[in-house]
Amino acid sequence: MKKTMARILCVALALVMSVALLASCGGGAKNYAENNTEYFIGATGPLTGDASSYGISVNNGAKLAIKEINAKGGLNGVLFKYEMKDDQATVALAASGYDALYEAGMQISIGSVTSGSCEQFASKSEENNLLFMTPSASTASVIENRANGFRICFGDPDQGVLSAQKIAAEYNKIGAIYDTSDAYSSGVYDAFKSEMDKLGKTFTVKTFDKENNKDFSAQVEALKDCDVIFLPIYYTEAGLIAKMAASKGCKAVLFGCDGFDGIAGQLDATVTNKIMYITPFDVNSTDPTVKAFVDAYKAEYNSLPDQFAADGYDAVYAIYNAMKAANVDNVKISASDLCDIVRAKLTESTFKFKGATGEVTWNEKGEPTKVPQIVEFN
Question: pTM of the entire structure?
Answer without folding.
Answer: 0.82
